[in-house]
Specification:
- The chain folds into 2 domains: 80 residues, Orthogonal Bundle (Arc Repressor Mutant, subunit A), CATH 1.10.10.10; 136 residues, GntR ligand-binding domain-like (Four Helix Bundle (Hemerythrin (Met), subunit A), Up-down Bundle), CATH 1.20.120.530.
- A 3-stranded antiparallel β-sheet has the order 1-3-2.
- By secondary structure, the protein is mainly α.
- The chain contains 10 helices and 3 strands.
- Helices cover 67% and strands 4% of the residues.
Length: 235
């Protein structure tokens, strides 16, 4: 039986014939990976990707080097490129990195957030509510990121927020919230409600306490991800 993962990424690429630059190729491959269109470990056949864009293999290979540097793609000499596959311990480590960066951003963001910032976070929370109500795991996964990054962005520390988004990107191919139980998503969303309340009240201490509890719960969920899903590497 053919490996479905081999064709997963090329099949989801949407190439613009008016822009076949290396940057456009990188952006499109990144989009597919971040949206979960190609599971961790999926091969990235260079010639197939090149055919989608109507270019030679050279700009594709050069573009994939950028994604290797970002931690989204892995490369093995004489084997080829694939969507990065983390071990369970590496995945857990990246969630700790996310927590550390987010906590630093939140401490500054609460006081600096504008009315528009608070409205955007509240809107992301309402979208999470709908996802929980509809048991839409993919929407929940997407909106969870919007909620957390929305709280961090007003910090006035763009480099830190960029680092947070980069760390978040590394964990995105797993699409964790898509693969956890509905009860876990609901429990995590209860935390989100408490975080929103503290954020809107400008209560830094309460927000950091609730955020820490949320991440402890999240770390338990990460540790409980079954090892036989193919989403994490053995080791």
């Amino acid at each position: 039986m053919p490996d479905r993962r081999h064709a997963a990424l090329p099949a989801r690429l949407s190439a613009s014939r008016t822009d076949t630059s290396q940057r456009a190729i990188v952006d499109e491959v990144r989009r597919v990976i971040l949206e979960g269109g190609a599971p961790p470990g999926s091969p990235i056949p260079v010639n197939d990707v090149a055919a989608v864009f109507g270019v030679s293999a050279i700009p594709v290979r050069e573009g994939l080097k950028t994604l290797v540097a970002e931690g989204l793609v892995a490369h093995l000499p004489h084997v080829g490129y694939s969507v990065a596959l983390l071990t369970a311990s590496e995945l857990a480590e990246m969630y700790i990195v996310r927590e550390t960066l987010e906590s630093a951003a939140l401490a500054a963001a609460v006081a600096r957030a504008s009315d528009d910032d608070r409205a955007a976070v509240a809107a992301a929370h309402r979208a999470l509510e709908r996802a929980v109500r509809d048991d839409d795991s993919q929407a929940y996964h997407r909106q969870s990121r919007q909620f957390h990054i929305g709280m961090s962005r007003p910090s006035g520390m763009p480099r830190l927020v960029h680092m947070l988004e980069s760390a978040w990107n590394v964990t995105e191919p797993v699409q964790l919230m898509v693969h956890v139980e509905q009860s876990d998503r609901a429990a995590l969303h209860t935390d989100h409600g408490l975080m929103l309340e503290a954020f809107l009240d400008r209560d830094v201490d309460a927000l950091l306490i609730v955020s820490a509890a949320h991440h402890r719960r999240l770390n338990v969920v990460v540790a409980a991800l079954p090892s036989d899903t193919g989403l994490v590497a053995r080791g």
